Amino acid sequence: MAEQVIIERLGAKADGIAETDGGHVFVPYTLPGETVEIEREDSRGRLLRVAQESPEREMPFCPYFGECGGCATQHMREDFYRAWKRDTLVKTLQHARIDTPIEAMIDAHGEGRRRVTLHVRFPEGVMQVGYMAARSHHVVTIDHCPIAVPALKHHAPIVARAIGEHLKAGRKPLDIQVTATLSGLDVDIRGHGPMKDKDRLRLVDLAADLDLARLSLHGDIVVERRPPAIMMGRASVIPPPGSFLQATERGEQAMAALVVEACARAKRVADLFSGCGPFALRLAERSEVHAVETDKGSVASLDKAARMTQGLRRVTVEARDLFRRPLLTPELNAFDAVVIDPPRAGAEAQARQIAASKVPLVVSISCDAATFARDAAILISSGYQLERIVPVDQFKYSSHLEVVGVLRKSGKKPSAR
Ligand SMILES: C[S@@+](CC[C@H](N)C(=O)[O-])C[C@H]1O[C@@H](n2cnc3c(N)ncnc32)[C@H](O)[C@@H]1O
């Protein structure tokens, strides 16, 4: 049954929140001040109609917005969106008792997302290709994605559909990751399971028909027609299939520029959770770098890129699980700066080791404000001062945000607040 509610505020995931007699209800794609009609299920509401619109509402530019689970904020005017996103960061940091002023948010969408994952499903035997709907296993069929880079925008769904057609006999649910590189599309197929040699050979032909740079199955390369290269500073890197890559080129450049600026005077830098080296390879233009990362393929790519690039300072690499075996305090003390960019879970064990070290400078990068705040608080309680915090918006149109923090050891432990 339809119900009318008034939206009071936005939650951290961009859903509108209404207070009702039956408790609060989260309604996606709504704005504070709006009166909306919803269909309610427990604490979630499905928007049926906006009865009274907020002046901050704008027409979404994507025809799939509201159905596809990829974007959450296209209905917000730009200024309102920027203020809301920044404010969610302010609140998270305040909650952790961090009161360093936050700098202006950098818009790092640039040309768009350079990687998309399309899903191929066969409900009732009919192939569907697209993105997942929000909070559902249902695929929303798409023929373009306006927030992807031009090379992917229309072409990634075409590629995914062709692969789905090619592999449809098995009716297996497939996840097809498509990355735009300098030499063409790099495609990794997940969900198919092992494949017989004759079927792999047919995939080689398909990769040629689609003019892919590389095609892999569960990270195992089926064919590399051209090395899928990405420039990281002066270095040309060939990331292993499916390895981590920052969402946008502009985002990677913006974060790397902040890292390089902060470490300008450091002779020796440790780059922890280094991935394929977007920070390490740029830092090595001025400093010696030791890069540490758990994924052996990424470490090997970084190492090869460093050795093939002329004029870099010494780069050493280490494959190491930093959750189980963080760099220990005596190891850390060999560095003038530590750069740390962990996954969403943060790096609590590593932060405790840094906290006990003499490293004078830490640059902390995170895509999760809560774990960023938790780990920064550990460093602050041991004498680091948070000098700057810069939000970098490379996940535009979503609720996610990157944060870059610069912390310097002051020598004195802070008194209790
Ligand atoms: C947010 S990404 C950052 C990568 C890189 N700094 C970049 O900008 O591309 C986090 C990285 O941490 C790595 N990682 C995840 N768990 C790890 C662990 N336990 N120990 C070390 N590295 C880990 C991932 O493989 C990934 O490359």
TrEMBL record:
Keywords, in A-Z order: 4Fe-4S, Iron, Iron-sulfur, Metal-binding, Methyltransferase, S-adenosyl-L-methionine, Transferase
Coiled coil: none
InterPro entries with a match to the protein in the record: NA-bd_OB-fold (IPR012340), SAM-dependent_MTases_sf (IPR029063), TRAM_dom (IPR002792), U5_MeTrfase_fam (IPR010280)
Occurrences of domain TRAM (ranges): 1-54
Organism field: Microvirga puerhi
Classification of source organism: Bacteria, Pseudomonadati, Pseudomonadota, Alphaproteobacteria, Hyphomicrobiales
Pfam families from the UniProt entry: TRAM, tRNA_U5-meth_tr
Name by which UniProt lists this protein: Class I SAM-dependent RNA methyltransferase
Xref: Gene3D superfamilies: 2.40.50.1070, Nucleic acid-binding proteins, Vaccinia Virus protein VP39
One GO MF term: methyltransferase activity
PROSITE patterns named among the record's database cross-references: SAM_MT_RNA_M5U (PS51687), TRAM (PS50926)
Domain of life where this protein originates: Bacteria
SUPFAM superfamilies recorded: Nucleic acid-binding proteins, S-adenosyl-L-methionine-dependent methyltransferases
Catalytic-site annotation from UniProt: 367
PANTHER family: 23S RRNA (URACIL(1939)-C(5))-METHYLTRANSFERASE RLMD (PTHR11061:SF49), RNA M5U METHYLTRANSFERASE (PTHR11061)
Family per similarity comment: Belongs to the class I-like SAM-binding methyltransferase superfamily. RNA M5U methyltransferase family.
Positions annotated to bind S-adenosyl-L-methionine: 246, 273, 293, 341
One GO-annotated biological process of the protein: methylation
